[in-house]
Structures are given as structure tokens and as C-alpha cells.
Write a structure and sequence with these properties.
Layout lengths: L4 E10 L2 E11 L4 E5 L6 H9 L6 E6 L2 E5 L2 E2 L7 E4 L11 H11 L6 H14 L15 H13 L5 E5 L7 H17 L3 E6 L2 H7 L2 E6 L2 E6 L1 H6 L4 H7 L3 E8 L2 E4 L2 E4 L1 E2 L8 E6 L4 E16 L4 E7 L2 E7 L10 E6 L4 E4 L2
Helix pairs in contact: 2-3, 2-4, 3-4
Bound molecules: adenosine-5'-triphosphate.
Length: 347
């Protein structure tokens, strides 16, 4: 089955500076894709190119049956049928909530009749659960409410694709997490294909069906949240996606020897013949035992669990434990494996 959104070999430059290199990305209809990467890696440029605000030097973007970008073709943004949710909601300050949502309906090329417009606005207000605030001005909304209105405005003209640029940045953590779940439910309810960019790995892993990891303008890996987290294709992906213990390993046949002994391992990325390997073990893939010569040197309490830092001479390990297993600083403990050991060729 060919993908609904298909980006092929996309290259984008600002002047002589190339920012995106050979981007390949596909999404099926109704998919929620997160593009995650650090600041400056090219996330916004990718969204702006899909939206038609930047021109590609090379490559193709196809959405449904429409070619948006191809050698010699650059469909103007108004004809792309793409909704846009910017970071700061950017609602029109002089229009009410309902008028903001209706704005893009009035702009549709086919023209939507007044009565149908108001029906669509009612439907969207219900979808974002803000029917009672329809006559409020943007200045009278909380950050989360404003973002929901921005999403409704983006959905109003029934776009084929919605692009969201860090839509939850600037919101407090609890609201962020609630709104993420709500936005995902709204998009799924309307079967809308969506691309979200974020520099927050937790956000990418929790909200998306598919995560694409962008590093310095190149996609390092695309996969489901569990695939990219549990089998990162590179050390960079592993580090970007969460806490990890990085150990030096030596090949012993099919196994690898580290400070934790000789164990089986899984290749992450391409297998290699190298004898010395980078070994990665997530803190939740270790557990503490009663007897051993590792000393607890720091405790980061997170409520639902805690991250213990253990030291033995120059060696250091982070271990995630359940609240009932938290030890005291200075306690001596042992360490055992409780999850996968990943290995990469050293670079
Ligand atoms: N209009 C522009 N002209 C020249 N260079 C630009 C322009 N816009 C962005 N850049 C550069 O392109 C690179 C990618 O920028 P982009 O905004 O796409 O990154 P980003 O991943 O979205 O970053 P952030 O998370 O900080 O928003 C950066 O080095 C940036 O300085």
C-alpha cells in the first residue's frame, strides 16, 4: 500500500547552507507522526517545506493524490490543504473563539455557506470541549484552551494533513500531558493525519504512532515508540531518547564482557566484527540486589519511581527502582540485569 504522505529524498537549503539532507518519511492516513530532535536540527524547516513556505532544492512531497513538491513543481501553500498549529497558538486577537475557528472556512476556495460554516464551528467547539467559551476573546483563554482553539481552527477546513510545531511548549507539565492525550484523541476522532515536531523525547514517545529522529538535518531512525526506544539505531538515538548507562564492552564470542560480567547482547544498528563495543543498558534494565560492592551515591526521587546512582571505584551506574526499593545514600548493594543489553560498534 502506498503511503498517504510520502516525502522522498528531500533536500532544503537556506542560501548556501544546507539544512535538510535526503529526508525520507512516510505516513499512512490517520497516522500521528512525531519528528523529534534537538534545537536547530531542522524540524521547523521540514514543516515549513511541507506547508510550502520554503522551497526544496531537491526531492518530492506527495500528499494523497497531489504532488506538492517535485522538480519544477511548487504548489502554493493555499492549495496544499494543510492545517497548521503554531507554537504560540497565534489566534487572531480581535476575533472571538468561534470567529477564529470560522476564519479558515471563509477562506476555503470552494466557499462554505454561512449556515454550514456555523454548523462546522459548533461541531469543532464540541470536539475541543469549549462550546461554552465560543464568545470569549483569545486574551481570556488559558494557554491550553488557546492551543485547543488553534487546533480546531487548523481542522476547520478538513485538511488532509495537520502540522504542529511544538504546540505544547510553554504549558505547565500537567496541562501538557493532559492536552497531549486530548489532542491525540481529537485527531484520531477526525481520522486526521498529523505531524508534530518536538524537542521533547517524552512527548514524542507518548503521543505518536511513529517517531522520526532528526539529527543535524538527517533522519537517523523512524519507527514505533517502542522500537526506537528499545532498539535505537545509533548511540545518538539511544542518548536522545532517554537515560542510559554507556559501558565499554569486549566481544567474547557471541557475548559481551562489561563491568557487569559476560552477558548476551543485541546489536542495535549494524553488526560489526569489532572487538571493542559501546554497550548501552537503560536504567530500568537493571535491578539492585541485597549484597554487593556498589555504593548508592545519589537518589533522584520521581514519585512513581526513583533513579539511584551507584558507584564502585571509577565505575558508575544509574538504576531505576520502584519506590519500595529505594535505598539510602551510602548503602552497599549489588546490581543484576533485568532487561536488554544493546551493543554498537565504536565509532
Ligand atoms: N530563514 C532562515 N535563514 C537562514 N537559516 C535559517 C533560517 N531558518 C532557520 N535557519 C537555520 O536552519 C537550521 C534549522 O533551523 P530550524 O528552525 O528548522 O530548526 P529546529 O529544529 O526547528 O530548531 P528549534 O527546535 O530551535 O526551533 C538552524 O541552523 C537555523 O539557524
Amino acid at each position: 500500500m502506498s503511503a498517504f504522505l510520502e516525502i522522498t529524498d528531500l533536500n532544503v537549503s537556506y542560501g548556501h547552507t544546507q539544512v535538510l539532507f535526503d529526508i525520507n518519511l512516510a505516513a499512512q492516513q490517520g497516522d500521528f507522526v512525531a519528528i523529534a530532535g534537538p534545537s536547530g536540527c531542522g524540524k521547523t524547516t521540514l514543516l515549513r517545506t511541507i506547508l510550502g513556505l520554503e522551497r526544496a532544492q531537491r526531492g518530492t512531497i506527495r500528499l494523497g493524490r497531489s504532488i506538492l513538491t517535485m522538480h519544477g513543481i511548487h504548489l502554493v501553500p493555499e492549495k496544499r490543504n494543510i492545517g497548521w498549529v503554531p507554537q504560540d497558538a497565534a489566534l487572531f486577537p480581535m476575533l472571538t473563539v468561534a470567529e477564529n475557528i470560522a476564519f479558515s472556512l471563509a477562506k476555503t476556495p470552494r466557499g462554505v455557506k454561512k449556515q454550514a460554516q456555523s454548523g462546522r464551528v459548533d461541531e469543532l467547539l464540541e470536539l475541543i470541549n469549549l462550546t461554552l467559551l465560543r464568545n470569549r476573546m483569545p486574551s481570556e483563554l488559558s494557554g491550553g484552551q488557546a492551543q485547543r482553539v488553534a487546533l480546531a481552527r487548523a481542522l476547520a477546513a478538513q485538511p488532509q494533513l495537520v502540522l504542529m510545531d511544538e504546540p505544547f511548549a510553554g504549558l505547565d507539565p500537567v496541562l501538557r500531558s493532559d492536552l497531549r492525550a486530548e489532542v491525540k484523541a481529537i485527531l484520531k476522532a477526525s481520522s486526521t493525519t498529523a505531524l508534530l515536531v518536538t524537542h521533547d523525547q517524552t512527548e514524542a514517545l507518548s503521543i505518536a504512532d511513529t517517531v522520526a529522529l532528526l539529527n543535524q538535518g538527517r533522519i537517523e531512525q523512524v519507527g514505533s515508540p517502542s522500537v526506537v526506544y528499545n532498539t535505537p539505531a545509533s548511540k545518538w538515538v539511544a542518548q536522545f531518547l532517554g537515560e542510559a548507562n554507556h559501558l565499554v564492552g569486549t566481544r567474547r564470542g557471541d557475548e559481551v564482557e562489561t563491568i557487569l560480567g559476560t552477558t548476551q547482547f543485541t546489536w542495535s544498528g549494524e553488526p560489526s566484527e569489532q572487538e571493542t563495543l559501546d554497550v548501552l543498558i537503560r536504567p530500568e534494565s537493571l535491578r539492585i540486589t541485597d549484597s554487593g560492592d556498589w555504593k548508592v551515591t545519589a537518589i533522584e526521587y520521581c514519585g512513581h519511581d526513583a533513579l539511584l546512582t551507584l558507584q564502585r571505584g571509577v565505575d558508575r551506574l544509574d538504576v531505576r527502582v520502584a519506590p519500595q526499593e529505594i535505598r539510602s545514600r551510602g548503602d552497599e548493594v549489588g546490581v543484576a540485569l533485568a532487561g536488554p543489553v544493546l551493543a554498537y560498534p565504536t565509532t
